[in-house]
Amino acid sequence: MIGSVERYSSSTGRRRANVLGGRLLRVAIIAFVLYLIVFGFFASTYRIESVSMEPGLMPSDRVIVSLLAFGARVPFFQSRLPGLGVPERGDLVVIKPPFLDEPGLLWRILEPLASFLSLQKATLHRDLYGSRVNAYMVKRIVGIPGDTVRMRDYILQIKARGAADFVPEQQLIPVRYQVLTSLTARGWSASLPLSGNGGDLVLEPGEYFVLGDNRPESSDSRSWGALAAERIVGKLIYRYWPPRSIGKL
């Protein structure tokens, strides 16, 4: 008699555990689908991790990125939906740098899962030494298709399509931002990579010239050339951290 009660109780406990486990699994799946919809189609969050955009954006700043601005990507695939507009001069954007290869299908499936389970803190990207690599950067669009551009003392000189002369970037960009040009390394020659000077470059259709505001401390189009439009992920629209800096971008 006692054994029958024990067996009944054990069986009931297992059934309840299975029901609870099934419900938790369904909740997790629904949450993951909602995560893909919201953070894959509409907007995402991003943590600034470098000094390349100082003083406008500081390390540890957190921002909201609109994926609708230039067209969201279909989760797990390379196809892209139509956007609300096109990238413009002065836009702050999240990009995938061209020196990182486009991932395969398996990676595109596992990466969102890793991001979801870690609250957007983990990534599958690794360098040659196995260390975590951020697959995204924040830069400012300075040159657009049709421009001829050149660098002079860390300022981009632009000859827009149909224009006769080069003008400094600030004359063509409506938003105000501060460009840092002071070198931190002594003896850094202007002829070296990431320097303040560079030759003429014509931007073809679908190509953009992107720069960090902290020019000596930024890896950008000066070193890896024009950026293809498909590598622009979204547009920064709002900073929500730290509290003293909350506001539109």
- Per DSSP, what share of the residues sits in E-state strands of 2 or more residues? 15-25%
What is the SS-derived class?
alpha+beta
Task: Specify the CATH class.
Answer: Mainly Beta
What global shape is seen? elongated
Characterise the protein shown here.
This protein is an alpha+beta fold and 249 residues long. It is 23% helix and 23% strand. It has three helices and twelve strands; from the N terminus they run H-E-E-E-H-E-E-E-E-E-E-H-E-E-E. The protein has helices at residues 2-42, 105-117, 221-224; strands at 43-47, 62-66, 92-95, 137-143, 148-152, 155-159, 167-168, 198-202, 207-211, 227-228, 232-241, 247-248. The strands form two sheets. Strands 1, 2, 3, 4, 9, 10, 11 and 12 form an eight-stranded antiparallel β-sheet that branches. The model is unreliable at 1-6 (pLDDT under 50).
What are the defining features of this structure?
single chain; 249 residues; alpha+beta; Umud Fragment, subunit A; eight-stranded antiparallel β-sheet; four-stranded antiparallel β-sheet; 3 helices; 12 strands; 23% helix; disordered N terminus
What is the topological layout?
Elements: H1 2-42, E1 43-47, E2 62-66, E3 92-95, H2 105-117, E4 137-143, E5 148-152, E6 155-159, E7 167-168, E8 198-202, E9 207-211, H3 221-224, E10 227-228, E11 232-241, E12 247-248
Antiparallel strand pairs: 1-2, 2-11, 3-4, 3-11, 4-9, 5-6, 5-8, 6-7, 9-10, 11-12
